[in-house]
Amino acid sequence: MGKTQLVPDKWKILSGSMLKLIAVITMVIDHTAHYFVSTYTVLFSVAGHNIMLYPIMRGIGRMAFPLFSFLLVEGFIHTRNRLRYGASLLIFALISELPWNLVHTGTWFYSKQNVFFTLFLGFLALWAIEAFKKIPVLPVVSAAALAYIASLLKTDYSFFGVLFIVLLYGLRENEIIRPLTAFLLENHWWVFAAFIPITLYNGKRGFVKGPVLKYAFYVFYPAHLLIIYLLKYFVLA
Length: 237
Fold this sequence. Notes:
Elements: H1 16-36, E1 42-46, E2 49-52, H2 53-61, H3 64-78, H4 82-105, H5 115-131, H6 138-153, H7 158-170, H8 188-193, H9 195-199, H10 210-235
Antiparallel strand pairs: 1-2
């Protein structure tokens, strides 16, 4: 079956680097709202109805996970070393756990796990699907088991986060059906909006080249959580 496209190639103007940048910006908007913006903050009023800032910022933030998930799928497909890729995800999941715990509870402990664990389990699910693709049922069982592990660990986006990654991979050649995976996640209309930049992806790496910039995007996640923690508990407390 050939690739099904929503838009012609000439409209595909966004590189992988631009998708990473959009993902990071939407994530920061989401976390800024979650930790610093009051739910009662009015952005503006229209015909006597208040438009609240908080839900808009959190909605924009829902675009981050689908973008990171899509980039994970692309990375899985194109990486020359899947073992190193998976190890990097796990290492940064572990590194991110402390600032993740601190920003949520102010302590070293929190019952839920950060999104890097979801991405890591999703990566393992894709690897299992590839490894066992010639064995009936086993790819499905493997992916479901890893999604269940995400649920047990209480990772960010949990079971449906891993399933979302798997479906993005399965529908990677079908740009028309692929956006329907948005309905797996909360605030699905905002998730659906993430497929606009995804559809405009041109398959090129872009400006993020070399290990320094590559890992800068990994480091940004725990670093920005630590900054939020310091602001929340020591500056703005």
